[in-house]
Amino acid sequence: MTQKKRKIIVTGASSGIGLAVCEHLLTDGHEVIGLSRRGEQAGPHHPNFHPESINLANLDALPHYLDDLKNKHPDTNGIICGAGSGAFGSLEEFSYSQIRELIELNFTSQAYITRAFLPNIKKQGFGNLVYIGSEAALRGGSHGAIYSASKFALRGFTQALRQECAKNGIRITLINPGMVQTPFFNDLDFSPGPESDNFILAEDVADTVLLALNSRRGTVMDEINLSPQKRVIQKNGLDKSGS
Ligand SMILES: NC(=O)c1ccc[n+]([C@@H]2O[C@H](COP(=O)([O-])OP(=O)(O)OC[C@H]3O[C@@H](n4cnc5c(N)ncnc54)[C@H](OP(=O)(O)O)[C@@H]3O)[C@@H](O)[C@H]2O)c1
Questions:
Q1: pTM (2 decimals)?
Q2: DSSP code per residue over 10-21
């Protein structure tokens, strides 16, 4: 049976997990609207890819922007929220504005995007909303107070929304990866170990997104945890821990 082609918004389309998701969706013949600050400067080159440049952390401008985007693409029936960033350190190392920015990007902007598109998706009677959480959505770790808080918020949001949207045929999925080898770590003082079983690939997460999208209607993959076989963290070139 051929699968109906869909129009899907992907945030974080310029890099890492979001970029891999875009590439998988385009290969499957879907139309993709890709959101990131870099817009058309990054992301796939494909006739079915429509890049949009937007700073999702600018919450004041977001409702107006999302209204326009919704009017441009009223037939959108999927959202994959892959935009986000990480900042780690003890709480007192964060300025007040850094706390606000991380929560707003990693959680509030995703609630705004969902809020904007949900009425149209409900009208279609079918859709998928997929969010990239983290292992930090499952347990708080040292130096991750604000990052974990943003991901716990996202997890609570998806659990509640799942109940709310079931009657409209909308499936909500939260994917919680451990360390994925992406530019996420470029500005951090740690990264996954170098061996292939020390990290997940962005393509592994994209495969999981597609699994959730392509599962039989009537079934929902509520929450999926993915982790590298071995947890090895490199700090300044040194192995900090291993298991
Ligand atoms: N990598 C990991 O180990 C890992 C593990 C668990 C969960 N995650 C989660 O996975 C998600 C994606 O991370 P990744 O590993 O793919 O990181 P990444 O390669 O750094 O990609 C982050 C994406 O988010 C976009 N983005 C960041 N700030 C933005 C802003 N203010 N406005 C619009 N777009 C913005 C970036 O685009 P621009 O820079 O062009 O704006 C980029 O496309 C994040 O939510 C992260 O918390 C990652």
A1: 0.95
A2: EESTTSHHHHHH
By residue range, what is the domain housing residue 73?
7-241
- Does 181 map to a domain? yes
Q: Kindly give the distance from the C-alpha atom of residue 28 to the centroid of ligand 1, in angstroms, as a whole number.
A: 23
| φ, ψ for residue 21, nearest 5 deg | -65, -45
Number of domains composing the chain: 1
Angle, vertex CA 49, rays to CA 7 and CA 113, nearest 5: 55
Q: SS3 for 179?
A: coil
What is the residue-level pLDDT of the chain in tens, covering all 243 positions? 445 799 999 999 999 999 999 999 999 999 999 999 999 899 899 999 999 999 999 999 999 999 999 999 999 999 999 999 999 999 999 999 999 999 999 999 999 999 999 999 999 999 999 999 999 999 998 899 999 999 999 999 999 999 999 999 999 999 999 999 999 999 999 999 999 999 999 999 999 999 999 999 999 999 999 999 999 999 865 444 443
For the chain, the 3-state helix, strand and coil shares in percent, each to the nearest 5, are 40, 20, 35
Residue 185: closest CA among 88, 101, 53, 42: 88
What is the distance in A from the centroid of ligand 1 to the CA of 57?
A: 12
The CATH number of whichever domain residue 30 belongs to comes to 3.40.50.720
Q: Do 178 and 231 meet the contact criterion of CB atoms below 8 Å apart?
A: yes
Alpha-carbon distance of 58 to 45, in angstroms, equals 26
Going by CA atoms, what residue is nearest to atom 6 of ligand 1? 134
Distance (Å, whole) CA 14 – CA 156? 27
Gap from CA of 203 to ligand 1 centroid (Å): 14
Q: Does residue 1 belong to any structural domain of this protein? A: no
